[in-house]
Protein 1
Amino acid sequence: MLSTPLAVHDHVRRRSHYLDVAVGTPVQYVLEKVSSWEEGFVVRGGDLLRDLRLRIDAVVGGGELEIHLTGPERTIIPEPCIRCAWCVEACPTLVHPAFVLEAAQRRDLKMAERAGLGACIECGVCAHVCPSRLPILDAIREIRGLKPG
Ligand code: SF4
Ligand code: SF4
């Protein structure tokens, strides 16, 4: 049976597990073997900051290297952007994330492109540093789905 190396990082209990898992094994089965998954916990695949959510009923694929298990999500503070520019300073590809967020709220693709949307590598650093916990990465992915109009 084809198997793949898999690291499971349990951020709730601060433990990591390094496994060799058969391709096609359900993620839920893996998590129950090494951790105790609970309702409300969030499962992500790949790099944590990229925020690529996995459904619990997904299966391990050949290219999967990492799974992250985190507790229930913190509430997003319903405050507007406070213009601190932390996201701008942190962006490795010189995008203006706050401006992209604003463009997404206006559904204005041209404005997002002027803010450097094309250079975004979806690393998630901007959303990670944002003190208002604004959904910048979600906004980037959403506006990328808009057709030029
Ligand atoms: S997700 Fe995009 S905009 Fe945000 S820090 Fe990474 S490259 Fe920059
Ligand atoms: S880090 Fe958050 S609050 Fe600060 S400028 Fe960027 S989007 Fe606005």
Note: Strands lie at 3-10, 15-22, 42-45, 66-70.
Protein 2
Amino acid sequence: MDFSPSDTALDYSNRMRAFLREAVLPAEPVYDAWRAQRRGTPREWDTPPVLEELKTEARSRGLWNLFLPDISKLSNLEYAPVAEVSGWSPVIAPEAINCQAPDTGNMEILHMFGTPEQKQRWLAPLLDGEIRSAFAMTEPDVASSDATNVRTSIRLSASGSEYVINGRKWWISGTADPRCVIFIVMGQTDPDAPAHRQQSMVLVPRDTPGVEIKRHLPVFGYQDQHGHSEIEFHDVRVPVSNLLGERGGGFAIAQARLGPGRIHHCMRLIGMAERAIEAMVRRASSRAAFGRTLSEQGVVREQIAQSRLEVEQARLLALKTAWLIDRHGARGARTEIAGIKVVVPRIACAIVDRAIQIHGAGGFSDDFPLAYFYAWARALRMADGPDEVHLGVVAREELKKIE
Ligand SMILES: Cc1cc2nc3c(=O)[nH]c(=O)nc-3n(C[C@H](O)[C@H](O)[C@H](O)COP(=O)(O)OP(=O)(O)OC[C@H]3O[C@@H](n4cnc5c(N)ncnc54)[C@H](O)[C@@H]3O)c2cc1C
């Protein structure tokens, strides 16, 4: 296993670092002020112009769509440091380089399973950063960590020319943003088929009659920049050509979607944890209590050291997982993908928690990004599947070893 960066990886990560330092970090207060001014108004979910400026700048620096190996020609191992750097500014940097969830996962499955027409209609503008998309699987009425529970019904119309969708979804990320014009909806087409063949995915344009966005759910009180919404589908009709992949293939597509997506989330969280460590060190070095700076207190030094050791371990596991995906595909790296999805959000939560503590009461406020970082790291112990499901995958593999 060799994790030394290739020349290409070094070049991209250096460019990403420069972009973060020169363009993204200075844009953060502009972005925040723009959004704060519109909070609670009908324009709340519009895109701050500074983000479009950043997108243009990123493209001119060759930092665009790097998540998709077929297009970027970067391996997962080479993309890892770029994603990590983008995690330093998790709200705006990933979108600035068109590598933001949930669009990356959606672009991946459109790329893998889309027909030429679907690719032209939806994938091309997504890759251009002109539109955004959502992935609708989770439902309030069933335990959705088990995708075979999904109950939204997708039925063929009497004429056989359309699918008719009825059901309720929630926590569907991205849909508050008016640019989010296409939803990939998972539902049951074949309730009598074996459990893993009952579901299919259909492409539902946002403006289809019968699509009703009920509300946007906050995460620990934060309204994320693009919302996590509850959506009802009432007799929503789409042409049969909007089926993504094969009928009954929804479960397999969901699995394919989550492999690379999970590791990308983890890489970004490592960047976020690095920023929390930097904040922790700056604060500890600049404040004194009981006659010494905080950084001279043994307890604080231990917290800093502990954070450094944890993030190094997390990064190594993320790189190993990326390396395995490159060699054996997401299927071959299943156990490691499950493992990394547990390890990194937990470590990120712990590190950000320490950073908050070292910042005193300030750490709980919006004067620092730490409270938001904590909310997001904690949410990632649930989004894309709860820890327990991933631990189950790891345990299953371990138990097989003595069979
Ligand atoms: C910020 C955020 C964004 C999200 N974005 C999206 C999105 O864009 N699209 C989408 O479809 N969904 C999204 N989700 C939903 C997320 O994927 C689901 O919440 C998750 O899959 C769990 O499903 P559930 O909420 O129905 O929990 P349930 O399935 O009801 O599980 C509840 C709890 O039961 C326990 N449990 C479940 N299975 C097991 C097991 N096998 N062994 C032991 N214990 C178990 C765990 O403690 C688990 O947390 C998002 C969630 C969050 C928080």
Note: Residues 102, 135-138, 143-145, 171-173, 219, 228, 379, 382-386, 388-389, 392 surround flavin-adenine dinucleotide (CB under 6 Å).
